[in-house]
Structures are given as structure tokens and as C-alpha cells.
Design goal:
The chain has 539 residues and is α+β, with helices and mostly antiparallel strands. It is built from 16 helices and 21 strands.
């Protein structure tokens, strides 16, 4: 069967799954306190379209569609977007990051960076409180930063922090062991919530702390309840930004197969971080729904399949190169997304200011691919088969990818691919985190700066068994480590970009991962919802 026919068949299969509403994937972390809804009636039966007003109006209930239940609601110790979506409403960070990458005040009303780059001082707003009424102080900032440094899976994100000084209740100075140009981006991300020390600093293990399930934060909305079907937050009347939030309540509805129906009936009004391209036509016909394609530049979402470098035959670079040389990435991207996706040629997202395309793009070369396999010592048997590999595939990720890989590897390279489908994310995550895989599909984010979202995947010191979205491939190259370490402290933006260009070239040559495309995420929302445009690079 030809590649095009294979993809067409796979697309038909996907279409059937869409009809059953099983294809859709969402991972949301918005800043909805800056959105407003004219009037939203949650129940589908009393839904009636209204014209959007130009000015925001206070009041109303907004329902999100959330695919999957988060393990907890503390984004200081996890990178899961199911957690960060509600957590970004419950907790506040020190800074915010606008849609054009500008740092803005949030809990900190101002900040200074020392000339040598080794100290960053944050000045907190006076009068800001947690949801239990306790004042937010520099002690909470220090506790939070050190907690994130110790427990967050992105180990390099705050590795440069030496200590946090608290000369007075409203001043916190972060002392660094080395310059950390990504620090402000970290402090403006949903992964750096300011936690209440008086709750989380009680000596209990933060990974299992009961407050993770019933959090107390300082964000625009406070926690009310959480169950298998929904997470409910309500407006915090003591929020430190005057007049915000506009909405009275947020309801995160945990659902999967009925999301498209829920959008159309109006029982949910927002579905973000979704790559539901096949639904676009259906939504376009609904006069009450809109689609926004921008706003995810800071996320840098990419789809790839990873190699486990600890297992033969994938521990041989020639085998990985051979696989790359038979994949038509551009064809696959075009078939899946048309002109709404970009091919991903390396570890850094094409939307990142640090992206470089001066890498080996592995153009189609079947003859070279088979030569590399022969040189690696894997000849074909009498049935034309070299060996069999397994692919751990999340069913939430487009099935066309696994179908395509099965066809291409078998037909062009003599490699049989056995696909293991994982309906539950937790089951897939355990297999990958424990290194019990050969190849695995995944969706991974850059998170604004390479130090935050890229280093974690490639640093040899971040090989952490049992931790998902660490260096689960077992990739180790001292040259790549050195380039990342140098770029992490380089204050000159031009030199820093050059270092990352060298890093991308090196990692693409080593090929611990084959990068497919930058995921074209969208936001589907009710036309009465305002503030969707230009909110933040975080979506």
C-alpha cells in the first residue's frame, strides 16, 4: 500500500473516531481573569445567543471543557497542563507575560536586575492576600521559589538560584550562582505560582500534601470543589487587581467524547489548547462559536516520536538516522493540517526567537537509509524484515502518525512496527517515564525559553527514572550539555541565540527524537466571550 493511500485510510479512521468524538485533545492554561462574558447560562436548555458587547461586564459563569482529570492542582510541582489550567486561576505568579513577550507586573509591582545578572529583586504589592485572608509576603516568595527549584520536574528551570533574601515583608531578592536570563520568563509562567508558606510549609511532603487537592492561592478565583466531573472556582473578592476578575465563577468540566456537542449546545463556552483541525468546518457553521489561532507562541507545542537510546537497535545512531531518512515529514504535516502547521526540524519550536533551521533535515533518501541499516548490522531476513520495534502511542494523539510510521518503516526499511495504544495518559506516562519503551509518540512544550522547556529533555543530568517529561530517552552528550549550560547563563541575546543554534545542530545530528511538527493549537470559544485576543503568549 502506498504512503498516500495509507494516510488517506488513516484519515478516514480518524474521521470515524471524530464522529464518536474521541479524537480531541486539550491542554489548557489560560489567564481567564482578563476575559469577560456578557451573560452565560450554564445549562444547555436555557442557552440563548446574545450579541457581544464592546465593554466587559461583571458577572456570569464560564464553563471550560477540560479533557481529563488533573492529578492535583499544584503547578509548582508538575508541568501537566490539566493542572496548570485551573491552577493559573487559583494561584498568581510574580509577573505576567503579554502577547508580545513583554514582562508586566502581577504580584510584583516592580523589579530590578543587577548589572552582573546575579541578583533579581522583586517588590511585592502592598495589601495582596491569599484566599484565606493571610497577607502575601516575601517569605512566601522565597518558600515558593525554593520549592519549585527542588520539586518541579524541569530541574534546570531554577537550578541557578542560590538563595532568596527577604530584607522586608514586601521585598524578595533572588541571589543566583550564575546569570539566569530566563528567570523573568519563569517567574511570569504558570509554573511559578506563589504558594502560601503557612499552609505548604507545615513539614508535610509537598508531593502528597492535602492542599494540592484543595489549594489556597492568591489568584483571581478561589477553590470551591473538585470531583470526577468538574472543578469549581469562584471569584475572590479580595483579588489584588481592582475590578478583576469580571466573572463570578469558573467551572472546569471534565469531559472527552461530548466536547463538540457541549460547545455547540453552549453547555461549555471555552475549549482551548486544542488541535481539532477536523472540527473547524463544523464549528465554522455555528454562528455562536469562534476560533482563535494565535496566542500559543510561548507554549511552543510540538509533536514528536522519541527513541529509547538505552535499548538496541535504537542505541545505534545509524538506525535512528535510517528511520529519519524514510519519513516524509512535510507530506505528513500537509496531509494532517494543510497550511496551519509548521514542520519541526529540531528541539526548539519554529516560533521561538532561538529557533534555527541550519540543521540536517533528513531529506527523503531510501537508498541511504537501507545502506545505514546494513552497516549497522541489521540485514533483512528471507521475508525482508530486519527487526520489530514497538511504539507507545497515546490515543489522544492523531492516529495517522502511527499508521503512517507502520507503513513507511515496513515498506521502505523492512522494520515492523507494533503499536501499543494507550487510552489512559497515566498508563502511557508510566511506561515512558520508567524507560519501558522503544519508541513513543508525545506532545511536548518549549514553555517560553529553552531553559524551561527544552533543557529538561536533553540534559544528561535530567535523566530521572519515573519522572515523565524529563530526559526519558536516556540521551547523553557532553557537547550538548556544555552548549545548554553556556546558553543558560549568556546575557548577550545574539551570542545566546548562536549557542542555541549550535545546540540544535548537535542534537539533530544525535537524533534522540524525531521531531514532526509544531502543533497548530486553537481556541474555540463562544462569541460572547471577550478578551480572547492578545491575552498572553501562554494561550
Amino acid at each position: 500500500m502506498g504512503v498516500r493511500k495509507t494516510v488517506q485510510n488513516a484519515k478516514c479512521k480518524v474521521k470515524k473516531e471524530n464522529q464518536m468524538n474521541r479524537k480531541f485533545r486539550t491542554i489548557v492554561a489560560g489567564l481567564c481573569c482578563f476575559m469577560a462574558l456578557e451573560i452565560i447560562s450554564v445549562g444547555a436548555n436555557n442557552y440563548s445567543p446574545l450579541q457581544a458587547t464592546k465593554q466587559p461586564r461583571s458577572g456570569g459563569v464560564l464553563s471550560f471543557a477540560l479533557r481529563g482529570k488533573p492529578i492535583h492542582l499544584n503547578s509548582a510541582i508538575t508541568s501537566g497542563m490539566r493542572t496548570m489550567m485551573p491552577a493559573s486561576q487559583i494561584f498568581a505568579s510574580l509577573l505576567r507575560l503579554s502577547h508580545n513577550w513583554e514582562y508586566q507586573p502581577y504580584l510584583a509591582e516592580k523589579w530590578e536586575v543587577s548589572p552582573d545578572g546575579l541578583a533579581v529583586t522583586f517588590h511585592l504589592r502592598s495589601g495582596a492576600t491569599f484566599h484565606d485572608g493571610k497577607p502575601i509576603t516575601s517569605e512566601d516568595v522565597a518558600f515558593s521559589i525554593l520549592t519549585i527549584q527542588k520539586y518541579h520536574p524541569f530541574s534546570d528551570m531554577l537550578a541557578a538560584v542560590d538563595k532568596v533574601e527577604t530584607p522586608d515583608p514586601l521585598t524578595a531578592t533572588v541571589r543566583l550562582k550564575k546569570p539566569h536570563p530566563a528567570l523573568l520568563t519563569v517567574m511570569a509562567s504558570p509554573m511559578a505560582p506563589i504558594l502560601p508558606k503557612h499552609i505548604y510549609g507545615d513539614g508535610q511532603d509537598i508531593n502528597t500534601h492535602p492542599a494540592n487537592l484543595k489549594p489556597v492561592g492568591s489568584g483571581p478565583f478561589k477553590f470551591v470543589s473538585s470531583g470526577d466531573s468538574e472543578i469549581v472556582l469562584e471569584k475572590y473578592s479580595g483579588f489584588f487587581l481592582p475590578g478583576r476578575p469580571y466573572l463570578d465563577k469558573l467551572i472546569f468540566k471534565i469531559m472527552e467524547p461530548v466536547i463538540p456537542v457541549a460547545l455547540e449546545t453552549g453547555s461549555v463556552q471555552l475549549y482551548g489548547f486544542t488541535n481539532i483541525s477536523d472540527l473547524s468546518g463544523q464549528i465554522a457553521k455555528n454562528e455562536n462559536l469562534r476560533i482563535e489561532y494565535s496566542g500559543y507562541e510561548g507554549i511552543g507545542p510540538m509533536n514528536w516520536f522519541a527513541f529509547n537510546l538505552r535499548k538496541p537497535p535504537l542505541n545505534d545512531k545509524r538506525v535512528r538516522h535510517a528511520i529519519a531518512y524514510v519519513i516524509d515529514r512535510d507530506f505528513l504535516v500537509k496531509e494532517l493540517f494543510g497550511d496551519k502547521a509548521k514542520a519541526a526540524t529540531g528541539p526548539i519550536s519554529p516560533d521561538s526567537p532561538f529557533y534555527s533551521d541550519k540543521v540536517n533535515k533528513y531529506p527523503l533518501n531510501t537508498d541511504l537509509a537501507n545502506k545505514l541499516m546494513d552497516e549497522a548490522g541489521y540485514p533483512r531476513d528471507d521475508k525482508g524484515v530486519r527487526f520489530t520495534l514497538t511504539l507507545a502511542h497515546q490515543t489522544a494523539i492523531n492516529i495517522t502518525i502511527s499508521e503512517y510510521l507502520q507503513s513507511v518503516l515496513s515498506r521502505k526499511l523492512g522494520v515492523k512496527l507494533r503499536v501499543l495504544h494507550f487510552d489512559k495518559f497515566s498508563d502511557w506516562a508510566k511506561v515512558v517515564a520508567d524507560g519501558d519503551f522503544e519508541m513513543a509518540t508525545d506532545e511536548v512544550f518549549n514553555h517560553g525559553d529553552p531553559v524551561i522547556g527544552v533543557h529538561r529533555t536533553y540534559l544528561s543530568r535530567n535523566i530521572r527514572p519515573g519522572v515523565i517529561w524529563s530526559n526519558t530517552q536516556g540521551y547523553s552528550n557532553p557537547i550538548a550539555d556544555e552548549l545548554m549550560d553556556k546558553a543558560a547563563v549568556e546575557k548577550d541575546p545574539v551570542r545566546r541565540k548562536a549557542l542555541y543554534a549550535e545546540f540544535q545542530k548537535q542534537v539533530v545530528e544525535d537524533l534522540p527524537i524525531y521531531w514532526l511538527y509544531q502543533i497548530p493549537h486553537q481556541t474555540v470559544y463562544n462569541r460572547r466571550l471577550m478578551g480572547i485576543h492578545n491575552a498572553s503568549v501562554w494561550g
